[in-house]
Design brief:
The protein is built from seven helices and three strands. The mean pLDDT is 85. The termini are far apart. It is mostly helical and 127 residues long. It has one domain: Winged helix-like DNA-binding domain superfamily/Winged helix DNA-binding domain (Arc Repressor Mutant, subunit A). The protein has a three-stranded antiparallel beta sheet with strand order 1-3-2.
């Protein structure tokens, strides 16, 4: 909700979206579903997912280290990080030139890890 509220303030400057959503449970559910689906789309991209995995420990990671880990140039990495931050999956630490994972990003990494482990077990049973 904080991500959507921030985007609303950037677009309209009013901040009225948050007040309206707080008063309407259907609007809250719709906003939450929209935010979760957006986060899932972001995490489904293999490069974005590798960034999220690198950040899932929640410790700030220097941007240069992320460039090396992902093989991305600074510009492409900056664009992807901007998208992940706007989706609420990562956080920038500008004063340290670092990026940190957040609980939502770590939860998606854990979800994929658990689903992958389950799929691998199921494949093992089929052979």
């Amino acid at each position: 909700m904080a991500v959507i509220d921030r985007e609303d303030r950037l677009e309209s400057g009013t901040g009225e979206w948050k007040a309206g959503v707080l008063a309407d449970s259907d609007a809250r559910l719709e906003a939450a579903e929209s935010a979760v689906l957006r986060a899932l789309r972001m995490a489904a991209d293999a490069t974005n997912f590798s960034i999220l995995k690198a950040l899932s420990d929640g410790i700030g990671t220097p941007v240069d280290e992320l460039c090396g880990a992902t093989g991305l140039g600074r510009l492409e990495l900056a664009e992807r990080l901007g998208d992940l931050v706007s989706a609420g999956l990562a956080a920038k630490v500008p004063e340290a030139n670092q990026v940190a994972g957040v609980p939502a990003g770590a939860a998606l990494v854990e979800l994929v890890a658990n689903a992958s482990a389950r799929a691998a077990r199921d494949l093992g049973r089929q052979s």
